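User: Second chain of the day. Same drill as before.
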Amino acid sequence: MTMRTNSANRPNEGKQNTPNNPNNPNPQNNPNPSQHEPSSGMAGLGDRAKEVAAAMSQQAEGAANFIGQKADSTTAAVGDGLKSLGSTLREKTPKSGMLGEASAAVADTLESSGRYIQEEGVKGMAGDLTNLIRKNPIPAVLIGVGIGFLLARVASTRS
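Assistant: Same format as last time:
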């Protein structure tokens, strides 16, 4: 005679994997996905990716601002140096004669270049260069090819 046992006689049968079972060795193992927190799974992963991307974007923006500020301060220093060099050249060279005229022209050019660099900064110079290339595309391409040729030549002699 076979005896049928009812699962009601065994209180833990079929409930080993439920989190509320005191005999469950791993109460964190929840087989029902509908009971997961909303931040877990693919939705939580997407939210976390958005947070990381936003943080990286803020860091990149901060780095770009820092680099821009450093570039502006560097160009201001270069402009000041050029103006100072022009003034020094004007003071130390003869005032008359052919050498005096040439040194005065060089000093004027250095001083005006220094003022331009200080006033315009990197963005202004880049804008001016862009406009110059737009107005003169063929010479700009030829200059680019020439610079590329010179760089290739210098690189090949070092190898």
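DSSP finds three helices and no strands in the chain.

User: Great, on to the next one.
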